Each structure stands twice: as C-alpha cells, then as structure tokens.
Amino acid sequence: MNYLDALGLTHETLGPANYCEIGCRLGYSLALSRVPAIGIDPDYEIKVALTAPTRLFNTTSDSFFARDDVAQILGAPIDLAFIDGLHLVEFALRDFMNLEKHASPDSVIVIDDLLPQHMDYASRQRNTTIWTGDVYRLVPILRHYRPDLDIRVYDVDMKGFGLVTRLDPSSDVLAGNYGAIEADILAGKWSFPTVAAIRDHMQPRATDLLANDLGIIAAQRTAKASKQSDRRAAPALPHRRPRLSVIICAYEMPREAPRTILSATAPYQKGLKEDEYEVIVVDNGSSTPLTYDNLPPNAQIVRVPDPRQSPVFALNWAAREIAKGEILLFAIDGARIFSERLIDETVKAHDRMEDAFVFSLSWHIGPKVQMQSVPEGYGAEIEDGLIRAVRWPDESDGLFGISVLAGSSSNGFFGDITESNSFSISRTLFDRHGGFDERFTSPGGGLANLEIFRRYVTRPDARNVCLLSEGTFHQVHDSVATSGKNRWEAFASEYEAIFGGPYLRPSYHCFYQGKPRAGMVPFILQSLQG
C-alpha cells in the first residue's frame, strides 16, 4: 500500500464532510476527495481532473491561515486534512497547529513522510530524488507536548502514513511552547540517528490494520453524531438520565460520611448541574443506618442487601442495579472528601477521550500518612480542629494545606500510583472488563482497589487520565488500611491465593488534564523533584 492508496481508503471509510490539503502540488492526492475541498500550495500544477468542488490557494499555508477571512473561506470545521507541505518539521508543526485550530474534536489529520526508508531521505536539505525531510520529528514533539492526542503511524510504502485523532481545537499548548520547540528543533533535539531508531519510536502499525482502525474511527464518529442528533431532537424532560453516577461505599462512618456526601453534591461540587450526575451512597450494613439531613434530589442512600465485610459486592451491586449514568465513578472508601470540581473534571475527561480510565490522586488529612500519625496520637478531635482552622467547606482548597499525599500516591503526579479512591470508567468498559473482583473477601476489600486499578491502567490500549486539579482527602477513622494496624501481609496472601502470584505495582502511560489549583502547587513541585 502506498500513501495514495492509504489516503484513498481514509476518504472512503470516513466519508468526511469536507477536506483540506496542504501541499497539493500536482493534485494526485487532492483528486481523491469526493467532498468540497481546499488545496493550499504556492507552486501547484494540477495534472489530474478534480471531480469534487475544490478551491485552490496559490500561497503558503502560513499565509493562508494568517488571513482574516480564513474562517469564512472554510465555512465549517475541517473534517479531514492532509499535511504534505514543505518537508521541514517546524512547517509541519505549524500546519498541524493551524489545522487543529480550525477542526473539531472528531476531525482527523493525516500526516505524510513519517517513516523515511533511508536517512539520506530525512535530511533538512534535499539531496535525493525521494525526500521526506525531517517531518518524522513531528511525532515525538506531539507525543511530548500533547499526550492527549491519539497518534498512529502505519508502515505505508516508502514514506509512512500517520493518523492523528482526539483533537482539541481549544488547546494552546503548542502555541504557548512554539518558541522553545523551534529552538530545540534547530538545536537538533527530537532527531534520531538511524532509520531503526525512528521506527523504534514510531512503533508503526502494519498496513493491514489501517482499514480496521479507520472503521473504528468512523463508527465512533457516527455514534457520537447520532447521540448529538438524538439530544437535539429529544424533547426536554423533567428527569433526564444522568451522565455520571458517583458510587460511594460507607460503613460505620457517622462522623466522616456526611462530609463526604456534602463534598460530592451541590453546591460544594462546581460545574455540572444537579441533573447531570447522581450520587449513590451505599451503606454496607452499618449497625446504625447512615442518614444525612437535607439530602439533595440527585443523591440517595441505599442499604445493600446481604451486606458483607468486603465492600466489593456493594459497589458492583450499586453499579449494576441502581446507577443510571453512562459513566461510573467509584469511591471504595466513604470517608474521603472530594475536591470541588472532581465530578465536573471527570466528565470533561470522558468527553475528550472515549474508553478513558480517569482517576485522581489521594491525600491524608494530618501531618503524616495516617498509618504513621494515628499511632503517634493523631485522631478525630485533632482532625476536626484542622478542618475548622482552614474554614472548610467555605475554603475548599484549605484541605491541601493540612494534608499529605497518601502512601498509594507517594510517587506523585508524574510517577505510577497504585490506587485511587475516585476513578471512573464508562459503563461499556465496566461491562467489558468487569467491576471489583468479588473474590476479595477481606474487611475493607484487601487489595481489591489496587487490583482493579492495576487491571484498568495496564490493559491493552489503555487511555489513562490523571486529573491534575482534583483529589480526595482521607478522614481518620477506624479503617482497615489506615488505622495504624499493618494488615498488608494478610492482604498480600489473599491476592496471591486469588491470582497465583504476588501483587506487583503497575507501570503505565498516563495523560494529564487540568490546571493545578494553588493549594496543589507544592505537591506538583514535590512530584517533579521526586
């Protein structure tokens, strides 16, 4: 398969609404379009018939996108684009930035010349008939600065072929760092010495996978368009289905659970409207049933049937039988206060990335992790005083100032953590990969929360998203894991009995979302230093 075959298959499978090509030159690739198209090239010499309505611009791409009337010329977001202009990486980068700015989140950008067969082809000056230039350097740049993008490179004959999806037209990351990127380019950064080194970074996919991948992209685009159409066509209903269901498990927490419920509901939670999410607090058999005064309309407390000492059944039961949301957020420990935009940021992450596993880091209130502070005398009375002193809940960020990262999050934002008390998945993923493993029967669930976290972050094609601006705060209580009583040996034995081997910390790739709030800055710096 050569690049024209690959591009033709892309047109045929995706059926774009419009098309934009940078570097149309002789017109062979431009002629593949069957929809309104725009061709940009300062030296075009079209040699073939263009059957679709096409507008040609005899100018550089930089000049075209600098026009005041570019939005009017385009008329609509660019649906499919092809970058095949001047074969220097800084030009290809600017082309990508300009195209993404005028695209939609569901658009697709195709990039040519990513897999040179010989390093002679990859020089910044043309010395050979076949010339790819150093466009290949665009991929490591994008992967470094924009890990939210989905970039796939295919082993198309002679030149390589790249698909970029999950675009974000509002992103200013590349523009904000362009000066530094260009300086690095000229200094030789993002280069590879051999073709083998380029391929090692690219990890190109076989060409026979292109048709399958394009089919998946097309199906996702169609499904999303159908949902949007249904939402527009549906009459307004007084009680619509929530986007997200928050499932919190509580047991013997009369002091702690009310704070958790307050933090998970409006008006403390900011961003989403009440009818866009629901909060389900599962009482897992407390001796005195959990109550909460003035429970908001979108929240409920339910008693699990047949309560067990492990919370895993209660969480799975609520997800299967009670929750209505298409996204499920699990909080295995009901003693953890949510940050004020955790739910809103979670939904945004799922909107930006399908099949995402979204999570936040965890903090312990107090001077040390509570496994250490409790034996030293830290308790509920001291903690209540700390919370009052920072004027929570009126001053929500104050909790960061009286907390430390939990042991499971001790590697910080940019290291691999082992679990989260606020992770979320789509219902589709829940059905496909399962909920909590109900073979964990230890009090508190043992390593069940670590197991489900590991299972999801290490699955093939995992899309892991860590929220930089949000987290949860553990309140001291007589919990199994944080009360100062070391039960790791028993938990590890249960894990090994279930899986036939020891628990291993997960290693995984992660995307990041959000701008850290002021109270989190010390922890971001701590993560960088670590």
TrEMBL record:
UniProt xrefs under Pfam families: Glycos_transf_2, Methyltransf_24
InterPro entries: Glyco_trans_2-like (IPR001173), Nucleotide-diphossugar_trans (IPR029044), SAM-dependent_MTases_sf (IPR029063)
Cited Gene3D superfamilies: Spore Coat Polysaccharide Biosynthesis Protein SpsA, Chain A, Vaccinia Virus protein VP39
Domain Glycosyltransferase 2-like intervals: 245-361
PANTHER family for this protein: GLYCOSYLTRANSFERASE, UDP-GLCNAC:BETAGAL BETA-1,3-N-ACETYLGLUCOSAMINYLTRANSFERASE-LIKE PROTEIN 1
Protein name: Glycosyltransferase
Organism encoding this protein: Mesorhizobium japonicum R7A
